[in-house]
Design a protein that fits this description.
The complex is a heterotrimer. By secondary structure, chain B is mostly helical. Chain B is 42% helix and 0% strand. Chain B folds into two domains: 2-50; 61-143, no CATH class. The longest helix of chain B has 24 residues, at 9-32. Chain B is elongated. By secondary structure, chain C is mainly alpha-helical. Chain C has helices spanning 3-7, 24-47, 58-71, 73-79, 88-91, 98-132, 135-144, 153-186, 199-226, 232-263, 268-276, 280-304, 309-335, 337-340, 361-381; strands at residues 10-11, 347-348. The chains are: A alpha+beta, B mainly alpha, C mainly alpha. Chains in contact: A-B, A-C, B-C. At the A-B interface, helix 2, strand 2, strand 4, strand 5 and helix 5 of A face helix 3 and helix 6 of B.
Chain lengths: 252, 156, 392
C-alpha cells in the first residue's frame, strides 16, 4: 500500500470510530432537552376551585400574579384580586372592599363581635365555557382554547374594549403598555408545562387549586360531589369554571 | 347587443367598479389573513403557542426540594406542609435553574409571619391568628417557632 | 395606584371597572350614525311614500347623510388601541360579534345604498356640469360620471327606476344600520343598563328624530345662507313627522323606564341611585325635560294654534336644536351612564373627560364640525337646489 492510501485509511478509520461517541453525545444532549413530555392540548380541560373557608386574605396570590405575569403595578389593574365582605343579616347590603386589590393585605377595619360575618373572596377570570367576552370580540383576538382556558391574542387585538364591557365579572382590563386587552390566562405558560398557576403555588392555605376536569384522577370530581359549590352570577349562564366552595349569597 | 346596452352603459361601468372592488378585497384578504387562522376556532392557532412563551418566575415546591431535602423533611407532617416554599421565599425559578445566579435573601420573620397570622376578623376563625402585642409579649416569632415546622421546637 | 380616579369612587367597584372603557368618542358614534339613518328615512318619505311636500329637502338630506356617514368611523379609529388593525374586522369578522357584522352593514349602506342613490339622482346634473365646466372641475365630473355622457330620456328613466328600487332597499338598510348600533349595546347581558330588547328600537326611533331635526335645521340654514325662500309647507310637514317620531320614541323610552321601576330587579336600586345623582343633569334635565318634553310641546302647540310663518320658523329652529341636544344626551346617558355604576351594584365612579387628548373633548368637537365642512363641500360640488343647476 502506498503512504497516501494508508494515511487515508487511517484518517477515515479514526473519523469512523468517532461517529459512535459523537452520536451518543448528541443523543444525550437532545434527550436532555426532550425530557419534558409534550403537552397534549386536547387531553386537558382546566378550571379552578376557590375555597372561601380557607382564604385568609394574605394577598400572596395577588402579588405572585403580578410578578409571574408582569401585570402593571400602576395604574390600578389586576388579573386577580381579593375582596373582603362584611355582611350583616341576610346580606342584601354587604360592605365590600379591596384595598389595592388585596396587594398589601387587608388592614383591620372591623371589630370582632359586631354581629356581622366577614370573609375573603378571591376573584379571577372565570374561564367561562360559554364566555360572553369571546362572543363579542369582533376579530377573534380572544377565544376559548381547546383545553378550556380563555386566552388573548395580543398581536391581533384591536383594543376596542367590547370584551371588557361584556365580561360580567370585571376581570378584563386594557394594558396601557400594549393598548390591548389583558386578563388572567390561568398562567397558561405554566400549566402547559406541568406546573400549577402562580396564585395556587403561592397560596399558603390551599384556598386556590388548579383543577383538570378531564383528568379522571383529579380530586376535583370528588370535591364537586361532596361540597356545596357555587359559581359567580349563575343567572348569566356563562359556564364559569371557577368553582367556589362555601360562597355566601351576598357575594357579588 | 347594442340595443341592450343602449342607455345602460353607465350602470355596467358602475357594476364593473363594484366587481373590481370585491376582487381587490378578496386579494387583500388572501394576503393579510394570518396563517393558521381558523384551525381550532375563530382565532389564530399560533396564539396558543404565544401564550406559552413566558418563562415561569416561580419554580414550584418540587424544584426546591430537589436540593433542599433537609427543609423538605422538616416540612413533612408539620403545620406548614401545605405551604409552598415560594409562598414565603418569593419567586425563585432563576435560583432553581442556576443556584449561584441568584441568592435568595432570608425573609424578615416579623413582617412575613404577620402577613398570614395577624389577627383579622375576616379570617376563618379556625385559622391560627394572633395579636402580636398580647401574644408572648410580641417577641420574635422564631424564638419559639420553627418556621418550617411551626408546631415543633425551633432548630438550635 | 391612580389616586385621582380612586377618590371619585363611591362604594365598591371591581378594581378593573374604575376607569371608563368607552369615552365621549363612543357617544359620538351612535349620534352620527343616527343622524344618517334619520336623514335617509326622511329622504325616502318623498321617494317611496310620495310625500311630495318634503321634496325640496330630498337631495340635501342625502348629502347630509353622506357627510355624517363618512365621518362616523373616525371617532372609532381614534378610540381603538390599534387602529392599524381595524381592517381585521373585514378580514376575519367574528360572526357572533355585533360589532364585526356592523362593519359590513356600514359598508353595504355606504356603497350599495347611499353612494349609488346619490350618484343616480345627480347623474344628469353631473353630466351637464362635465360638459359646461372647465379645468380640474371638468375632469372631476367626468370621473364621477364614469366617463359616460349619455343623459337620454330612456337612460334617465332607468336611473329613476333603479333609484326608487335602491331607496326601497335602503329603508330596511337604514333601519338595520342604526338598529344594529342599538343591538351592540342591547345584547350585552353583563350590563343591565344596556341589556334590553327594546334598545335597538329606541336607538332607531331616536335616530329618526335626530335625522329629521338635522335636515330641518340644515334646510332652513342653507336657504337662509343662499337667500332662497323657505318652502313653508315643506318645513311644516317635516316638523309634523318630527313630532310623530318623537312621540313614538318618547313612549318607547318611558315604557322601558316604567318597566324597570315596576320590576325592580337586582340592578334597579343601583341604577335608580345613579340616575338621581351622577346622571341627573344629563338624563332628567337635558335629555328628558329640555331635549324631549319641551320640543314635543312646542311642536304640538303649532298643531293646535295657528302661528305666523316667522313664528313657526323660530319654533322649528329652536325645537330642532333642542332635539339634537336631547338625542345627543340620550347617547351620552346610554354609553357613559352604562359605565358609571359597578357590575357589583355596590358602587359608582366618575367620567373624567380630558380636553386635548386622543379621546378628549377637543377631538370630539372637531369631529362634530367635520361633517358640516364636508357637507359644505358636497353642496358646492353637487348643488341640492334646482335654482343652481348649470345651464346645459
Amino acid at each position: 500500500m502506498n503512504s497516501d492510501r494508508r494515511d487515508f485509511v487511517l484518517t477515515a478509520g479514526k473519523l469512523l470510530l468517532l461517529t459512535a461517541p459523537a452520536a451518543a453525545y448528541l443523543e444525550a444532549v437532545e434527550s436532555g432537552k426532550a425530557e419534558e413530555p409534550a403537552y397534549k392540548t386536547f387531553e386537558h380541560y382546566w378550571g379552578m376551585i376557590v375555597d372561601i373557608e380557607k382564604c385568609i386574605g394574605c394577598g400572596n396570590c395577588v402579588r405572585a400574579c403580578k410578578v409571574e405575569n408582569d401585570v402593571p403595578l400602576e395604574p390600578y389593574f389586576f388579573r386577580t384580586w381579593v375582596e373582603r365582605y362584611h355582611v350583616e343579616g341576610a346580606g342584601e347590603h354587604p360592605d365590600v372592599d379591596s384595598p389595592d386589590g388585596g396587594y398589601n393585605g387587608f388592614p383591620e377595619k372591623y371589630a370582632a363581635g359586631d354581629g356581622a360575618k366577614s370573609f375573603f373572596v378571591p376573584k379571577l377570570c372565570n374561564q367561562c365555557a360559554h364566555s360572553p367576552c369571546t362572543q363579542v370580540c369582533p376579530v377573534g383576538a380572544t377565544f376559548e382554547s381547546p383545553d378550556g382556558a380563555v386566552l388573548v391574542d395580543k398581536t391581533y387585538c384591536l383594543g376596542c374594549r367590547y370584551c371588557v364591557q361584556a365580561c360580567p365579572y370585571g376581570c378584563r382590563f386594557i394594558d396601557p403598555r400594549t393598548n390591548t386587552v389583558d386578563k388572567c390566562n390561568l398562567c397558561y405558560h405554566r400549566i402547559t408545562k406541568g406546573l400549577t398557576t402562580a396564585c395556587c403555588e403561592s397560596c399558603p392555605t390551599g384556598a386556590r387549586q388548579l383543577v383538570d376536569l378531564k383528568d379522571a384522577r383529579d380530586p376535583v370530581h370528588e370535591f364537586l360531589r361532596t361540597h356545596k359549590v357555587h359559581v359567580l352570577k349563575p343567572q348569566m349562564a356563562t359556564g364559569s369554571k371557577v368553582f367556589y366552595n362555601a360562597l355566601d349569597g351576598s357575594v357579588r | 347587443m347594442n340595443r341592450f346596452l343602449k342607455d345602460k352603459e353607465h350602470l355596467f361601468r358602475m357594476a364593473a367598479l363594484f366587481a373590481a372592488g370585491v376582487v381587490l378585497f378578496l386579494i387583500v384578504r388572501a394576503v393579510l389573513v394570518p396563517k393558521g387562522f381558523g384551525v381550532y376556532g375563530h382565532y389564530r392557532a399560533g396564539a396558543l403557542a404565544d401564550n406559552r412563551v413566558r418563562a415561569p418566575r416561580f419554580a414550584g415546591r418540587a424544584a426546591c426540594i430537589e436540593c433542599h431535602t433537609d427543609e423538605g423533611d422538616r416540612l413533612k407532617g408539620g403545620k406548614h406542609a401545605g405551604v409552598g416554599c415560594e409562598a414565603c421565599h418569593g419567586a425563585l425559578a432563576k435560583h432553581a435553574a442556576d443556584p449561584s445566579s441568584l441568592k435568595p435573601t432570608k425573609p424578615d420573620s416579623k413582617t412575613l409571619c404577620q402577613t398570614c397570622h395577624l389577627m383579622n376578623v375576616a379570617k376563618p376563625a379556625k385559622f391560627p391568628q394572633i395579636d402580636p402585642k398580647s401574644h408572648m409579649d410580641g417577641g420574635p416569632c422564631l424564638t419559639c417557632h420553627d418556621q418550617h415546622a411551626p408546631d415543633k421546637e425551633p432548630k438550635k | 395606584m391612580e389616586e385621582g380616579i380612586l377618590h371619585a369612587i363611591q362604594g365598591y367597584m371591581y378594581p378593573n371597572e374604575v376607569e371608563l372603557q368607552w369615552s365621549i368618542l363612543i357617544v359620538l358614534y351612535p349620534f352620527t350614525t343616527g343622524l344618517v339613518a334619520g336623514a335617509f328615512i326622511l329622504a325616502s318619505l318623498e321617494r317611496v311614500f310620495n310625500v311630495a311636500a318634503v321634496k325640496p329637502t330630498y337631495r340635501l338630506a342625502l348629502l347630509s347623510a353622506l357627510a355624517f356617514l363618512l365621518v362616523s368611523p373616525l371617532p372609532l379609529q381614534l378610540h381603538l388601541g390599534h387602529p392599524e388593525r381595524s381592517i381585521e374586522m373585514y378580514l376575519t369578522p367574528h360572526t357572533s360579534s355585533a360589532m364585526a357584522m356592523f362593519g359590513f352593514i356600514y359598508l353595504w349602506y355606504l356603497m350599495a345604498v347611499l353612494v349609488l342613490e346619490i350618484w343616480l339622482d345627480y347623474r344628469k346634473d353631473m353630466v351637464l356640469m362635465a360638459r359646461s365646466e372647465t379645468g380640474w372641475k371638468k375632469t372631476l365630473y367626468r370621473i364621477l360620471t364614469l366617463g359616460v355622457d349619455n343623459i337620454s330620456e330612456e337612460s334617465l328613466r332607468i336611473d329613476d327606476k333603479l333609484g326608487r328600487f335602491i331607496t326601497i332597499v335602503g329603508i330596511p338598510s337604514a333601519l338595520l344600520l342604526h338598529g344594529y348600533v342599538g343591538f351592540i349595546f342591547g345584547s350585552v347581558k353583563a350590563n343591565p343598563w344596556w341589556s334590553t330588547p327594546v334598545m335597538p328600537i329606541v336607538f332607531l326611533f331616536s335616530a329618526i328624530v335626530s335625522g329629521i331635526a338635522l335636515v330641518l335645521l340644515m334646510y332652513m340654514l342653507v336657504c337662509f345662507l343662499k337667500g332662497i325662500p323657505i318652502d313653508m309647507p315643506c318645513v311644516d310637514t317635516i316638523a309634523r313627522y318630527l313630532m310623530y317620531a318623537f312621540l313614538v320614541d318618547f313612549s318607547l323610552e318611558m315604557l322601558d323606564l316604567i318597566h324597570r321601576i315596576y320590576e325592580a330587579d337586582e340592578s334597579f336600586k343601583s341604577l335608580d341611585f345613579m340616575v338621581h345623582t351622577r346622571l341627573y343633569t344629563s338624563q332628567i334635565l337635558v335629555q328628558i325635560v329640555f331635549g324631549t318634553i319641551i320640543p314635543i310641546a312646542m311642536l304640538a302647540f303649532i298643531q293646535l294654534v295657528k302661528l305666523s310663518d316667522a313664528a313657526r320658523k323660530g319654533i322649528y329652529a329652536l325645537a330642532g336644536l333642542l332635539t339634537l341636544m336631547g338625542i345627543f344626551a340620550m347617547r351620552w346617558n346610554v354609553v357613559i351612564g352604562g359605565q358609571l355604576f359597578s357590575k357589583s351594584f355596590l358602587g359608582y365612579t366618575t367620567y373624567k373627560m380630558a380636553f386635548a387628548t386622543k379621546e378628549g373633548l377637543l377631538p370630539a368637537i372637531l369631529l362634530m364640525i367635520l361633517p358640516f365642512v364636508i357637507l359644505w363641500g358636497l353642496v358646492k360640488l353637487l348643488p341640492p337646489f334646482d335654482e343652481e343647476k348649470a345651464a346645459v
